[in-house]
Design a protein that fits this description.
With about 290 residues, this protein is of the alpha+beta class. The protein contains six helices and twelve strands. A hairpin with a 3-residue loop joins strand 3 (about 55-60) and strand 4. The protein binds zinc ion.
Length: about 290
């Protein structure tokens, strides 16, 4: 499931492939995108840059336009070199689209054509968005004034991340359980369900503690751990899978996430799982280490 680290990596890959390139073809199944395209054609414009803010992926398009996408649970962006002979299969109504990620020829996936939402073709690459549930064109000058991007808290993966501001925004939610507060993108941006559980384990804080019951230094420490864990996972080396434990063993990458019933890597007690918060998101924790 894409969290801030995944989106930042995707943005970097898309930026490297598309920035400065002229769009030759634009297609989408979303009427609200094709309507904009019909009124002010996207083809012919340059992609200026691609960046991530929290879990939003933003593509700046010449003419002060931003394509904002959000992956939610299953969406993903991919690029595909147009020189690849299999690219032609994309142009006909085949049932499946085969593509290769930029990571290397050994990694191949297949996604059904009906999951294709957006296609952006430039001379060297085509960018494809699959199963992306949220996509809109936003005028560049309104991006930071109104809407979900404007409401984001400090981005844990931004170079200008403001830890004090993030702590203040968390502290302003005293009645929330800390696990839910960490998911609130208006408090701080980038954390999803995996890092939520991992950060709290590393800090030895119970996910059910109300924010108001946590001392300020505890919040500061939580935010520092979140930055450290997410930054460690944004590099190219992290593409093989997230790691919070500093262990090289691929079966020991995470402390608690998806480890229900397995022994805690610190104390041996069985890892617990519960649904938590208004969206009933899974929380994993060790009752002994995080009491
Ligand atoms: Zn434990």
């Amino acid at each position: 499931m894409p969290e801030g680290d995944t989106i930042h990596r995707a943005a970097r890959t898309l930026h490297a492939a598309l920035a400065g390139q002229r769009i030759e073809r634009f297609e989408s199944v979303f009427p609200h995108l094709t309507r904009v395209d019909a009124e002010q054609p996207i083809a012919g414009r340059c992609v200026e840059r691609v960046e991530a803010r929290g879990k939003h992926l933003l593509m700046w398009i010449e003419g002060e336009l931003v394509l904002r996408t959000h992956m939610r649970m299953h969406g993903s962006w991919h690029i595909w070199p147009r020189s690849d002979p299999r690219y032609t299969s994309l142009r006909v109504a085949s049932d499946s689209i085969y593509y290769r990620a930029s990571r290397g020829p050994s990694e191949r996936w297949q996604r059904p054509r009906h999951e294709l939402r957006i296609l952006i073709e430039t001379s060297p690459y085509v960018a494809l968005a699959f199963a992306v549930p949220v996509a809109e064109f936003v005028p560049a000058d309104s991006l930071d004034r109104v809407g979900p991007v404007a409401e984001l808290g400090p981005d844990l993966l931004s170079d200008s991340f403001d830890a004090a501001e993030a702590c203040a925004r968390l502290a302003a939610r005293p009645d929330l359980e800390i696990a839910d507060a960490l998911l609130d993108q208006r408090a701080l941006a980038g954390i999803g369900n995996v890092f939520k559980s991992e950060v709290l384990f590393a800090a030895r804080v119970s996910p059910f503690t109300r924010v108001g019951a946590l001392p300020a230094e505890q919040l500061t420490r939580l935010v520092a751990i979140a930055v450290r864990q997410m930054q460690a996972n944004v590099g190219d080396s992290a593409a093989g899978g997230r790691r919070t434990t500093n262990r090289l063993d691929p079966s020991a990458r995470l402390w608690v996430y998806r480890r229900r019933g397995l022994p805690c890597r610190r104390c041996g007690a069985p890892i617990q799982r519960a649904k938590q918060g208004p969206d009933a998101r899974s929380t994993y924790w060790c009752a002994r280490c995080q009491s």
